[in-house]
Structures are given as C-alpha cells and as structure tokens.
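Can't attach files on this board, so I'm pasting raw text. These are the components:
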Amino acid sequence: MSNVPQFAWSSRVLHWLMAVALLAMLAIGMTMVVSLEHYRRLVAIHRPLGVLILLLAVIRLVNRRLKPLPPFLATMSARERVIATASERLLYGLMLLLPLVGWGMLSAAQIPVRVGPMVLPPILPHSLSLYTLLRRAHTVLAYLLFISFMAHLSAVLFHTVVLRDGLLSRMLPWRPRDVDGAPPHQR
Amino acid sequence: MNDLATRDTPSGTRARLAVVIALVSSVGGVFLYFGGWLSPGRLTPSRLVDTFERVNGPHPGFRRNHAKGVSISGYFEANGAGTRFSKASVFRIGRVPVVGRFALAGGMPYAGDSVATVRSMALRFSLPNGEEWRTGMNNIPVFVVNTPEAFQEQLIAMAPDSATKKPNPERVAAFLAKHPETARAIAAIKAQPATSGFEDSTYKSLNAFVLSDEAGRTTNVRWSMESMQPVGHAPAVANAPALGANFLFDALVARLAVQPLRWRLVLTIAQAGDSTRDATQAWPESRERVDVGTLTIDHVEGEATGPARTINFDPLVLPNGIAGSDDPLLSARSAAYSQSFTRRVSEPVSVSAVVVPASEGANER
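---
Top answer:
Structure tokens for the assembled complex are below.
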C-alpha cells in the first residue's frame, strides 16, 4: 500500500467532478465565442453547466472547511507550499466567481438565463455599463482560470512524472498500490 | 526536490521532463484549437460583425445591422389556437406586454429611407415567470442566403464600390453564380410588391422553429405578423427625396399618433419534407396557416428614450414550448447579435436619425 496520505474521500470525488465540469466548461466557452455554427448548442450547455459549477463550488467550499488536508509532501519546498496554497485559493475563487459574473452580466443585459424549463431570476439590475464591465471580466477571469489550470496540471505532472513523489495519488479516487520503480516516499 | 530527481540518471529525468512538457503542450494545444487559434481563416461571430463594420463604416453605439430604427410597444392577445401546437404560455388566451423595434435593414444608421430597403419588426414578449420570447422578422417572403458563410460573401459582394458607390456588377454576378439559391430568393423577393410603409407590411420569421406541446409532440413552423391595416401603395422611388430622409418612420409615427396598429400572428405549419434548414426556400402556399392572436402596437418612441435600444433581439431567446430549428442561420444570428450587442453597448450612445416628438409618440394605452 502506498504510504502517501490522501485527501478525504469527499474531497477527491468533488475534485474530479469539478475537474470534468471545469474542463468541459473551458472547452465549451472557448469554442462558443468563436463559433457561428455551434453557438446555440454550446450556449444551451454553458449556462446550466455554469449553475452546476456554482453549486459544486459552494459544496466544495463547505467540504474544504470540514475535511482536514493531508500534510504536504517532503518534496515540496516552503515556497512551493505557499504557491500551492495561493493557487488553491485562486481556483476556489474563480470557480465561485466565474459563474456569478456570467449570471450577473446576463442579468445586467436583461437576457433570461434558461435552466431547463425555468428561468433564473436576475441577480443584478439592468445596466449596460455593468454588462460591459462584467462581460470583459468574464473573459479575463476565464483566461485566468485556464492559466491556473495549466499551471496546476504542469505542477502535478512535474511532481508525479519527473520527481515521482506520488503527488497525484493524494487526489486519486482510488487508493493506489505502489508503482514498480517509484521511489519510496520518505517524509 | 533536486535530490529526488538526481537519484535517476540525468537522461532519464530529461526524458520524463520531456513527457511532461509534451503532455502539457498537447492539452494547451487542444484548447488553442477550441479557441480557434489554429484556424485563422474560419468565419467567427467577430469576423462577421467586422465585415459589417468594414462595409458600412464605423457607427459607434448602433446595431451593426438594422441600424436605423425606432422603439415600439404594445401588447399581444392570444386567442388560444396556438396551444394546439405549443405549451408556451404566450399562446394561452390572454394578454402579454410587448416591446419592439421597427428598423431598416443595413448597417447605416443615417441612411435615407427607401421603399426598396428591407423593413424589420423585432419584438420581445414578456411572459410570466421571467420567460421571454424575442423574435426579429423581415418584410420579405424568404431570406437571401441559407448559411452564415454565404451571408458574409454576400455582404462583401454587394458592398458599394468606393469609386462608383454602387455594387460591382461583376462581383455580384460571380456571387449569384456561386449561390443560385440567392438568385432564386432575390427573384421571389422582387416578385412581392413593396407596401407603402411599416404599418401595412407583413413581417416573417424566415427561419423555422420547433413548437412542442404538453405531450412532447413537436411541430415545425414559421411565423409571420400579418398587417391588419389596408395595404397602401408604395410611393414611387423617384419621389422619395421629396418625402424626406425618414419618410417611412415619419409616416409610422403619424399613424400611431392617430390610432394603434394591429398585426395577426400566423403560424405556418410545416409538413414532412419542408426544409427547416433553408431560409431561402418558401414552403408551399397550401400549408396550414393558424391565426394565434393579435399584436397591437400603440406607442412609438425614438431610440434615445425608448426601451428597444438596450434589447438584443436574439431569435433564440425563446420560452419553454418554442425552440430553434436546425437552421444554421439561427445559431449564427444568435452569435452575431450577441457580438454586435456587446460591442455597441460599450460605445458612447449617438443620436439616432429618427427622433420622435414625445407628444406624438405618447399615444394613450
């Protein structure tokens, strides 16, 4: 059995659900703004998926307060730990903020947000200057999320593949067995 | 962290690092592909709206198409006949408020009115529970193109030449040769005599939509707002300059100062084989047509004060019970309108050509 301590079961499940939702969302968002042909279909997924991500983000935030974190690996320097903590906060902030900014900008433009058969209530008053501001913010924050995701992916892959310290196994949905050839994890 | 890495041979570490770089680059590349960075020639909503700006010149604050218009309002009274096809609340017997816009096609907000210019009626029905139905209709029997790419080509082909101020006949001919569906559509449009103004025009959805009833049964339809005003004759084009630059809008404002105007909302029911994807093709005349209610327009306002300026008449803002068809123009319109809206509302508001005096526009409800 691996001796790398894992995140709580609920944290791991939420992490991967969110990973799938966010990656799909980034792909859909980036595609729909440049597509005439698929715009309609993608917008129809983008908005309800945004609502789902907002709900998941709130659940994750509650879960984050309740479940203890496993200790950092010895392979992470003090500076890396600071960066990891800051980037975790940034990702949590973005997954909460991006759906709210999206919902808010549509509210400000008086565009009804359909989720299945119902329409979400507006969360901001009608204001075109607010729409302009939030529409730009939505793009900037989406790119920031994309960059944060790429950094997160790079860091995890670097640790897991290059340093082979088993970082990824902390978050895997299952408990990994020791991989042959992987160095033992001394803490 | 280096002590771990150095446990392996330097070449092994380098190989694994290369794997990581390759993986991360691949993921990044996939997203660049999604974002259109790898296909710079593809027509996007942005590029389509850019074309409007290039052809018409910059007109900050105005819609990139149907730039010249006025705000209208009134109400729609459904007679209940539409509930046969759709569960949308707008078809149930009752009255809903409507805000809309009359406009002339084209991206020139100060162009003089012309009988030959396509007229449009855009409407927003405000339904219960926050639902809305937005629609933009034109007074032509069919649309001139059936794909967004052809629309882009048409904009460029029909753009006035900088020297002659008229479309280059060779470019137009080449475009029509490539797009026989447009040649046929233009012939159908020309075969329909122009009416005298906004008030006696019939406006058509052109694109097809899909209605669904409570049982989930779907029906393909197109709809039209059929004028209940007697049809007048269009003034001869040669007389237009004497009528003033806004004669069509002025006539509308004058009519509305006297009496409300009415249109019948008529659904045309498709049969198997009627194309929902091709807006250049009319459905046969024999198709069942169902009168589902009456639109009353009783108020007109200039864009400076009227509510229509801030509305994006996105044809895919639809209530439960009405959905877009597979017509590629619908998705493209939705995308391009959004782009036009986002651009124009971030720009300073300019004074519209048509200014409606408050006393004339303020007809009592």
